[in-house]
């Protein structure tokens, strides 16, 4: 694969000295309410209901280098937001090697995957370094963990003609429960175009929006974030699931969006490596959308398990059914998306989206239950996961910095 684009976006730091929590970023409760997480529940076999919170599912998160303060920072975040204790396992392939940028990335990804799917287990796989070889080795480690049903990847490569050799890495291994792979699209705006693996036909690519929440908790406005990367892939052909969505010859990214603008970002508690003083900061970027959508898939997989179904496979189930739900209440259309595909299918209305993912069968894609679904979705194509994963050419030993995030406004104390 080609060289790695390092396009981090930092908003000027605002420092404070207060010995209190600064309420600058959106809290989990506000984001849950804005995107409809709070209204998801499932029927149980005994006639009761349970909250849609990812119970029984495992989210794997890929990062690089070790974050020594991850668990203690998560504890502060959970206590401040009234969240249950997280079930987190760290697979440390990096030893004692640390990096401040990757530490902020893993802090945000873990805290917000937990915030949106609080009962899901989380496995953070820390790659040995941020070289392409080591990061892809971390992906392989994540997909081999038996309980993992969704993998979040907040990194990207510049596209190259040979990238298709790596597509099998983002599929469910033979004999494994279904896995959905999710990747951030990038924070470099439309000029940089698509990046990999978000542009892989096997991966759910997530872009970013600017979100203003109203006083009552709903979304007052949501527009496409100017720095959300988008556009057609240079090399990946249009997959079958996009045939009714766009007519170009190439796969377009992103598939979906989530809050991404750091000026309307979320709160994260973070202690940099080597420091003993943590602070509340406002982070975002399309890096936030990857664990957020991983949480959504985990909640859907929880509902499927309760219904006696298996977890979703990304290329043969998750992506086709999402595109089959285009134009329904499962998605909120995004203002300022020019062309319309720049925001993909739109932002999730989780309360309407999850039933569609739960009801999906091999015969047809189910539409969201309840009033307001605007049309019958087409039947998605189904492609079995490959029987084997061919060995790709080795990745060059180049630095794979987080290509864009987390974009942030620091508000320390």
Produce the secondary structure layout.
Elements: H1 28-35, E1 41-43, E2 49-51, E3 58-64, H2 70-81, E4 88-92, H3 100-116, E5 121-127, H4 132-143, E6 148-153, E7 180-184, E8 203-213, E9 219-224, E10 231-237, E11 250-253, E12 256-259, E13 266-270, E14 279-284, H5 286-306, H6 314-324, E15 331-332, E16 347-348, H7 350-359, E17 407-409
Parallel strand pairs: 3-5, 3-6, 4-5, 6-7, 7-8, 8-12
Antiparallel strand pairs: 1-2, 8-9, 10-11, 13-14, 14-17, 15-16
Count of strand segments: 17
Radius of gyration: 19 Å
- What structural category do the secondary elements indicate? alpha/beta
Low-pLDDT ranges:
1-23, 363-401, 407-413
Q: Helicity level, as a percent range? A: 10-25%
Mean pLDDT: 85
Main sheet, how many strands, which sense, barrel?
A: 8 strands, mixed
Number of helices: 7
Distance between the termini: 41 Å
Order of helices and strands: HEEEHEHEHEEEEEEEEEHHEEHE
The portion of residues forming beta strands comes to 15-25%
What is the approximate shape? globular
What does it look like?
This protein is an alpha/beta fold and 413 residues long. It has 7 helices and 17 strands. It has helices at 28-35, 70-81, 100-116, 132-143, 286-306, 314-324, 350-359; strands spanning 41-43, 49-51, 58-64, 88-92, 121-127, 148-153, 180-184, 203-213, 219-224, 231-237, 250-253, 256-259, 266-270, 279-284, 331-332, 347-348, 407-409. The strands form 5 sheets. Strands 3, 4, 5, 6, 7, 8, 9 and 12 form an 8-stranded mixed β-sheet that branches. Strands 13-14-17 form a 3-stranded antiparallel β-sheet. Strands 1-2 form a two-stranded antiparallel sheet. Helix 2 (70-81) packs parallel to helix 3 (100-116), helix 3 (100-116) runs parallel beside helix 5 (286-306) and helix 5 (286-306) packs across helix 7. The protein is globular.
């Amino acid at each position: 694969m080609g060289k790695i684009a390092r396009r981090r976006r930092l908003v000027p730091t605002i420092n404070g000295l207060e010995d209190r929590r600064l309420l600058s970023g959106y809290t989990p409760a506000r984001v849950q309410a804005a995107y409809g997480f709070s209204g998801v529940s499932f029927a149980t076999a005994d006639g009761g209901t349970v909250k849609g919170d990812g119970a029984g599912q495992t989210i794997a998160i890929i990062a690089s280098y070790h974050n020594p303060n991850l668990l203690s920072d998560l504890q502060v975040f959970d206590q401040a937001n009234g969240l249950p204790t997280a079930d987190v396992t760290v697979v440390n392939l990096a030893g004692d090697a640390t990096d401040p940028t990757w530490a902020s990335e893993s802090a945000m990804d873990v805290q917000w995957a937990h915030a949106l799917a609080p009962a899901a287990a989380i496995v953070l796989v820390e790659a040995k370094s941020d070289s392409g070889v080591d990061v892809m080795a971390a992906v392989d480690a994540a997909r081999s963990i038996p309980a993992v049903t969704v993998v979040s990847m907040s990194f990207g490569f510049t596209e190259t003609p040979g990238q298709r050799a790596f597509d099998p890495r983002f599929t469910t291994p033979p004999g494994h429960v279904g896995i959905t792979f999710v990747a951030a699209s990038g924070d470099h705006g439309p000029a940089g175009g698509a990046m990999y693996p978000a542009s892989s036909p096997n991966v759910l690519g997530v872009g970013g929006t600017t979100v203003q929440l109203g006083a009552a908790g709903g979304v007052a406005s949501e527009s496409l974030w100017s720095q959300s990367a988008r556009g057609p892939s240079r090399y990946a052909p249009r997959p079958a699931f996009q045939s009714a969505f766009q007519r170009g010859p190439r796969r377009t990214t992103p598939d979906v969006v989530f809050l991404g603008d750091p000026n309307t970002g979320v709160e994260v508690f973070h202690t940099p490596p080597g420091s003993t003083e943590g602070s509340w900061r406002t982070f975002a970027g399309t890096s936030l959308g990857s664990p957020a959508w991983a949480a959504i898939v985990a909640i859907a997989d929880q509902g499927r398990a309760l219904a006696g179904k298996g977890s979703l496979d990304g290329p043969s189930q998750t992506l086709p059914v999402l595109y089959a739900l285009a134009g329904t209440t499962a998605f909120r259309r995004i203002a300022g998306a020019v062309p319309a595909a720049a925001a993909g299918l739109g932002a999730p209305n989780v309360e309407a989206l999850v039933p569609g993912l739960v009801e999906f069968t091999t015969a047809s894609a189910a539409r969201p239950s309840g009033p307001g679904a605007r049309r019958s979705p087409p039947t998605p194509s189904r492609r079995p996961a490959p029987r084997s994963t061919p060995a790709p050419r080795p990745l060059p030993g180049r630095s794979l910095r987080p290509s864009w995030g987390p974009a942030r406004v620091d508000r320390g104390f």
